[in-house]
Amino acid sequence: MATTKGLEGVVAAETKISSIIDDTLTYVGYNIDDLAENASFEEVVYLLWHTRLPKADELAEMKQQLADQMEVPQAVLDHFKTYDIKAVHPMAALRTVVSLLALYDEDAEVMSDEANYRKAIKLQARMATVVTAFARIRAGKEPIAPKKDLSYAANFLYMLSGNIPEPIEEEAFNKALVLHADHELNASTFTARVCVATLSDMYSGVTAAIGALKGPLHGGANEQVMKMLSEIGSIDNVESYIQNKLDNKEKIMGFGHRVYRQGDPRAKHLRDMSEKLTKLNGNPELYEMSVKIHDMIVEQKHLPANVDFFSASVYDALGIEHDLFTPVFAVSRVSGWVAHILEQYANNRLIRPRAEYVGPGMQTYVPVEER
Ligand SMILES: CC(=O)SCCNC(=O)CCNC(=O)[C@H](O)C(C)(C)COP(=O)(O)OP(=O)(O)OC[C@H]1O[C@@H](n2cnc3c(N)ncnc32)[C@H](O)[C@@H]1OP(=O)(O)O
Ligand SMILES: O=C([O-])CC(=O)C(=O)O
Active site: which residues (predicted)? Predict the structure, then answer.
């Protein structure tokens, strides 16, 4: 049996949800550039789950459903007070809380299409609430209830800070959510599909996916990019810091991709936003440092930036704490996970590949006292 390390190039599923062909990303046939410029996140969620854009009344209904389901059971919020919240990583907390949400959902084990759709809405709606509640409780503040008349993007920023975001902040965050929503068979989405292909429930699939997204080679890279920018500290230090890493053959977070060769089409949108938002919040140096790093990596390694690189300075400019960057990714990507879970259920077969055995040959058991 031949193996393909990391399953590179292996086609492991058919999907109608998103595609990456010749470095062009589409959701259900719509170019990501078009969606980033024009679509609301709620429209994209509908698109991914129904494989078509909503009509006005359908969009209004979905917005209403999401708004109605944003509140989480008090017991889930109380759970944040049962451990040292300052000592845990928010992605670990999110992984646990999504699993916990299942225990308060009477639909959790019901496998009908209707129950799965209700779970989809609840998961999408509540991810924003739990991430923002975690952040507030950690800061010693009370969680803020969502406002039903705000968009999903605005509600997230409102629940986080207590302030209704400025239009430019809402627009930028909406765009970031749109750009992160789905990405073909990335590691976390594949994880979700593998999990539910056993006919396990949607909460299990999303919990597993959060675990996969957490790693620094995947969604966790955005936090690592910010850590690097903070360590560098000023534009004068960029060259020596990056050169040192390259000379030591260390990976630079936010660069490279398994599928894209010329570049990640999402990065330019985030780069533009980073330029605008860092100017507005008075810290343009963060953008300038990012550009300098980018130019060095492209020149020396020929590696383009991926979605995580410029998203770091965007989220920082929006006032989001650095260890919440990956949870923010999850708040968007849950839409894609759910779409893939629904697609997997609709045409399921257990996912069970083979491994090539490379261990010792046949051995005979030796009792412990004789070893
Ligand atoms: C949302 C997302 O998940 S986007 C990806 C987020 N992850 C990151 O930004 C982490 C940094 N990037 C990486 O680690 C990789 O580029 C990945 C994991 C994204 C893709 O990895 P793979 O396709 O498995 O490529 P792999 O890790 O084998 O790298 C191939 C070569 O490019 C080099 N390379 C890849 N990415 C980088 C990087 N960011 N910095 C420096 N060198 C790199 C590797 O060192 C390797 O070099 P070698 O052949 O001389 O050993
Ligand atoms: O597709 C991948 O491998 C990772 C990625 O960019 C994403 O999940 O958005």
Answer: 257, 308
Cβ of residue 327 lying under 6 Å from some atom of ligand 1: no
- Could you give all domains of the chain from N- to C-terminal order, each with its CATH number? 16-216+323-346 (1.10.580.10), 221-317 (1.10.230.10)
Residues 232-265 pLDDT 10s: 999 999 999 999 999 999 999 999 999 999 999 9
Q: Whose CA is nearest to atom 19 of ligand 1?
A: 257
Task: Give residue-wise pLDDT tens across range 302-329.
Answer: 999 999 999 999 999 999 999 999 999 9
283 CA → ligand 2 middle, Å: 28
User: Is this prediction's pTM over 0.90?
Assistant: yes
Span from the CA of 251 to the centroid of ligand 1 (angstroms): 7
Report which protein residue has its CA nearest ligand 2's atom 2. Answer: 186
Whether 226 and 312 have beta carbons less than 8 Å apart is answered as: yes
Tokens of 142: 């009370």
Question: Which residues have a catalytic role annotated?
Answer: 257, 308
ipTM: 0.98
Say which amino acid occupies 193. Answer: R
Residue type for 304, please?
P
* Residue listed under structure tokens 């991810």: 127
